[in-house]
Amino acid sequence: MSRSWRSPLLVWTVGGAVTIALLTAGDRVTALVELAFFLLLGAALSPLPFPPSSTERGARGDSRRDGRPVVHWRPGCRFCLRLRLVLWRDAGRVHWVNIWRDPEGAAAVRDVTGGDETVPTVTFPQAPPEVNPDPRRLRARLRAA
């Protein structure tokens, strides 16, 4: 199983157990609220909110050709999720690389950050990379391009 699905599966399992316990106790309303919370939290921690990821090599090549930046991310990263939510419709204007699935992508992030895997890291074709950039500024930059 992919490493990126471990956190959401754990959250969903705990949510299921809490829901069953609440239903057993006869508290249906709280059980439904808790179930909805755990389902949404698990979905947010999963790779679902992100467009399909590319490999580092593929994303770099595409970025050179089309001028779009490369965003390195990983599931479970709240800063990556925040970036994705702010970009919303503009998320297709970047190339996404999941560093947990692509060792070359993880190595590229370590090169930029001095050895750690801080994400999101955004690499532009003709500009210096940015670590955890301001999502609104990045969105404005994408829309201006």
Secondary structure: number of strands? 4
Strand order of the largest sheet: 2-1-3-4
The tally of structural domains comes to: 2
Order of helices and strands: HHHEHEHEEH
- The secondary structure category is alpha+beta
Provide the residue-averaged pLDDT: 91
The oligomeric state of the chains shown is: single chain
Low-confidence stretches: none
Rounded radius of gyration (Å) = 18 Å
CATH class of the largest domain: Alpha Beta
What is the CATH topology of the largest domain? Glutaredoxin
Quick one: biggest sheet?
4 strands, mixed
Fraction of residues in H or I helices: 40-55%
Task: Compute the number of helices.
Answer: 6
Keywords: Membrane, Transmembrane, Transmembrane helix
Domain Glutaredoxin: 72-123
Transmembrane segments: 7-25, 31-50
Protein name: Glutaredoxin domain-containing protein
